[in-house]
Specification:
Largest sheet: 3 strands, antiparallel
Number of helices: 6
Distance between the termini: 20 Å
Radius of gyration: 23 Å
Oligomer: single chain
Strand order of the largest sheet: 1-2-3
Helix content: 25-40%
Order of helices and strands: HEEEHEEHHHH
Strand content: 5-15%
């Protein structure tokens, strides 16, 4: 991972990192209302986030759990069974982590048929997997909105992250040798953590 040797750039990267962690933890970590990070589920700016119009309400009982989720890029709608969420950008619908689509993964645990093929010698599914609601819950919709808002804000951060990475890579960077010399890689003493001294850290940044 490239580590800039410029103090101001390091602080800029750290600030951006705090916002990313705040988003990833749904407001549980690095909350700071003064910096626009309240200790609550993150939300996009008013009027820019997803919404469900009257005709898109995902039906609950007696309608069974939906079996299908699909995305329509032309209308920017995320369809779940007979309902849909409007104003979902394609970048949000296609958001992946470690090669897996986040929304598809989320829905796979809430769809009617949650069974998966048994591959190789993997243990067969537990009977507990069949214990689930028989209809869509309002809490599922709340969870979906929390996720869509987080993904939406992460997508908006991507240009700033890319620009920052380019700036870091074009400037002076700290080497492994410099970090080692400052004690960053020292073994932790018994019962404690190894920490580079303030003076050593200051020397790294000139």
């Amino acid at each position: 991972m490239p580590l800039t040797a410029k103090p101001a750039l390091f602080l800029k990267a750290a600030a951006l990192g705090r916002e990313v962690v705040w988003l990833h933890t749904y407001g549980e970590r690095f909350a700071d209302p003064a910096q626009g990070r309240p200790k609550t589920s993150p939300r996009m700016a008013p009027g820019t986030g997803p919404f469900i119009p009257a005709e898109g309400v995902i039906p609950d009982a007696p309608e069974p759990l939906p079996e299908e989720m699909r995305y329509d890029a032309a209308t920017r709608r995320l369809h779940i069974g007979k309902g849909f969420v409007a104003n979902v950008p394609p970048e949000v619908a296609g958001y992946e982590v470690s090669g897996r689509n986040v929304l598809e993964r989320w829905f796979s645990y809430r769809r009617r048929d949650r069974s998966r093929p048994v591959i190789g010698d993997r243990r067969p599914p537990s009977p507990l997997d069949s214990i689930q609601p028989d209809h869509w819950l309002s809490g599922y919709t709340d969870d979906l909105f929390d996720l869509l808002h987080v993904l939406g804000r992460l997508v908006l951060l991507e240009p700033a992250q890319a620009a920052l990475l380019e700036e870091v890579c074009k400037g002076p960077m700290l080497t492994a040798a410099a970090l080692d010399g400052a004690g960053a890689f020292s073994a932790a003493p018994a019962g404690g953590k190894a920490m580079a001294s303030d003076a050593a850290i200051g020397d790294l940044f000139g």
